[in-house]
Design the sequence.
């Protein structure tokens, strides 16, 4: 099985922590040169220094704010002018929780801007180099909610579904150029996001964080939360030459929690 990413360049979004950082680490372990992107230069520089590297590998970072569409386009276009990005990992923190009946129109617009629109901007810019190289991997980190909506995450459920259908359409259009587009659907993972969700549930139900954690774990056949690097490993596999014929899929990495096929 060819998992070697030596000589390939990857751009990983939201890589200052959590799943994004886990993906950056696993891509680096397979030999990729990794560029990480987020808003904090100081945090990004620390992550870059800690990434695995050997031989001629070179890792770096890009500071950009996904809320600023003009800045994002400028920064990523500049990056693409210096090197071909073969692997793009679209990963952005999820929208705030809450029932869909309480969501305001602005909540949906903000979420669509940060997820769907930002993903599209990056993919449109970077897919040109992928076409020329005859190799491309676009991997979107979304949610198992595209298969089974998660209670209390109305805006997120809606936005993730939009991204999944955008990605499927893109996979069809880019497939002839040696570019695959796939979605990774993480289940409950040990990140700040899961802590926020459990804190919110505990507050609303009048219970405790630990009680809500046990309740959530009881729905997972594996009996535990994932670690970020376990999600990162799935992302790295889809980025590899071995996954060249996998295109347009939603891959749950959830310990078996999702009840649909």
Sequence:
């Amino acid at each position: 099985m060819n998992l070697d990413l030596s000589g390939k360049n990857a751009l990983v979004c939201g890589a200052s922590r959590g799943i994004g950082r886990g993906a950056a680490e696993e891509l680096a372990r397979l030999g990729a040169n990794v560029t990480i992107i987020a808003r904090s230069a100081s945090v990004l520089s620390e992550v870059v220094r800690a990434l695995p590297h050997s031989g001629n590998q070179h890792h770096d970072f890009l500071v950009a704010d996904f809320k600023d569409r003009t800045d994002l386009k400028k920064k990523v276009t500049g990056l693409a002018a210096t090197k071909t990005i073969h692997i793009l990992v679209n990963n952005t923190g999820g929208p705030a929780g809450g029932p869909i009946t309480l969501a305001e129109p602005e909540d949906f617009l903000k979420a669509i801007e940060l997820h769907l629109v930002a993903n599209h901007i990056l993919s449109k810019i970077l897919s040109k180099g992928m076409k020329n190289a005859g190799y491309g991997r676009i991997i979107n980190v979304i949610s198992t909610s595209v298969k089974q909506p998660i209670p209390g995450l109305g805006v997120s459920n809606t936005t993730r579904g939009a991204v999944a259908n955008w990605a499927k359409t893109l996979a069809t259009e880019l497939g002839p150029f040696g570019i695959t587009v796939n979605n990774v659907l993480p289940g409950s993972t040990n990140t700040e996001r899961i802590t926020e969700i459990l804190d919110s549930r505990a507050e609303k139900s009048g219970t405790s964080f630990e009680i809500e954690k046990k309740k959530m774990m009881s729905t997972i056949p594996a009996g535990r939360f994932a670690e970020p690097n376990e999600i990162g490993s799935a992302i790295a596999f889809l980025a590899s030459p071995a996954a060249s014929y996998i295109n347009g899929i939603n891959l749950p990495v959830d310990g078996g929690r999702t009840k649909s096929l």
Notes: The radius of gyration is 18 Å. The helical segments are 18-29, 41-50, 69-82, 105-133, 154-174, 192-205, 209-217, 228-239.
